[in-house]
Amino acid sequence: MRGKRLLVLSILPLLAAVALVVAVGIGAVAVPPLEVAKIIGGFLRGTLSQPSIPAETIILQVRLPRILLGFLIGASLSLAGTAFQGLLQNPLADPYTIGVSSGAAVGATAALLLIPEASSGFIIPLCGFAGALLALFIVYKLGSVGGRLPVVTVLLAGVVVSSFLSAVISLGMLLAGEQMRNIFFWLAGGLGQRGWGYLALITPYFIVGLLVLLYLARDLNLILLGEEDALSLGVEVERTKRWILVAASLITAGAVSVSGLIGFVGLIVPHAMRIIIGPDHRYLFPAALFGGGIFLVATDTFARTVIAPAEIPVGIVTAFLGAPFFVYLLRRHREKYRF
After folding, report:
1. Cis bond upstream, residue 65 (ω within 30)
2. In angstroms, rounded to a whole number, what is the distance separating the alpha carbons of residues 106 and 120?
3. CATH code matching the domain that covers 2-337, chosen among 3.90.1440.10, 1.10.10.10, 1.10.3470.10, 1.25.40.10
4. With contact defined as beta carbons under 8 Å apart, do 86 and 224 qualify?
5. Which of 43, 77, 254, 304 has its CA 20 to 30 A from that of 321?
6. Cβ 221 vs Cβ 260: under 8 Å
7. Integer Cα distance of 70 and 131 in angstroms
8. How far is CA 165 from CA 87, 159, 168, 181, 265, in A?
9. DSSP symbols for 275-309
10. 59-65: long-range contacts at Cβ-Cβ below 8 A with a sequence spacing of 24 or more?
């Protein structure tokens, strides 16, 4: 099994590289993969044409930052979903379960309503990130019992906070007036008009959260075998839970604050990777990272080309794919949730 895991983890980065090159070349102006690779290589070496040819401008200023951002957001949501499913021991958990995504949506909605210039620049992402962190703080306070984080209370707190914040969002949309369209497209989730600045905005949060999750992967495996057994093996269970919750929520907040609400990535990909590579989080986290990135790059490429020159928000595409998958999981595990 270890050999299979290493083989999968060696293939996934290659698939990710191929997906990125192919996706960058697809659009109104098609660019062959070899030329895309040549332009990206020239960009990395600093040997671009002077002056820039049109293909270089299209790829480096429009498509490449969007594709890389899509990969990073897909990886973020998939990592967070993997962490939440393991931490909450619930196969239906994803980044929306904990209420962080709804908090980001409230922050972005408030920015659009209260700050006229919020429809451009980094105001929306920053307000969305602040809303996500506030939601995490509320869930943590509601879910903790005597300094501990019981799985059931955290899950219930996340559901309650998410439901309340959804009502706040609905009220905001009723009061939005001319900003209704901007709020709708943000809630639908998309990567349009996202440049290099947005990539730089979320990368630090992604790196910090990823390092924490990889560091705690072994402890999470032991917790899943039983908290008492984990304690006897030297794992500080409650501290590990808190750090995993914060790290996964931080990654989710960074992604959602930039892209809006892109659902089901954190539900579909972790299960697919778990089937392929097994439940060991030391291997599952890296697999989920690459799998989520590839998945969102592929769905975003479809979303921006299927009705070109217009495009569909990628969150709508992932919802069409994710809803049937959610029903499948619910039916498969329905005995577990029968009271």
Report:
1. no
2. 17
3. 1.10.3470.10
4. yes
5. 254
6. no
7. 22
8. 23, 10, 5, 19, 21
9. HHH-S-HHHHHHHHHHHHHHHHHHHHHHHHHTTTT
10. 59/24, 59/25, 59/31, 61/195, 63/23, 63/24, 63/27, 64/24, 64/40, 65/194, 65/195, 65/196, 65/198, 65/199
Q: How far apart are the C-alpha atoms of 212 and 315, rounded to whole Å? A: 27
**Alpha-carbon distance 333 to 338, whole Å?**
9
Q: What is the dihedral of CA 316, 295, 308, 203, to 10 degrees?
A: 90
CA atoms within 13 A on the CB side of 148: 9
Residue type, 233: L
Tens-binned pLDDT, residue by residue, of the chain (339 aa)? 778 889 999 999 999 999 999 999 998 888 888 988 888 888 888 777 665 678 888 898 889 999 999 999 999 999 999 999 998 888 778 888 788 888 988 988 888 888 866 666 678 888 888 888 899 899 888 888 877 778 788 888 888 999 999 899 888 888 877 778 778 888 888 888 788 888 988 899 899 999 999 999 999 999 988 888 899 988 999 899 999 988 998 899 889 888 888 988 998 899 889 988 988 999 999 999 999 999 999 999 999 999 888 889 999 999 898 888 877 776 775 555 443
Q: 145 pairs with which residues across the strands?
A: 148
With contact defined as beta carbons under 8 Å apart, do 26 and 305 qualify? Answer: yes
Q: How many CB atoms lie within 10 A of CB 4?
A: 12
Query: Helix 64-88 and helix 151-174: axis angle, to 10°?
Result: 140
Residues 6+ apart with CB under 8 A from 7: none
> Which pair of structure tokens corresponds to residue 180?
């209704």
In this prediction, residue 197 carries a pLDDT of 87
Q: pLDDT tens across 52-106, in order?
A: 678 888 898 889 999 999 999 999 999 999 999 998 888 778 888 788 888 988 9
What radius of gyration, in Å, describes the C-alpha atoms of the chain? 20
Structure tokens at 30: 């098609």
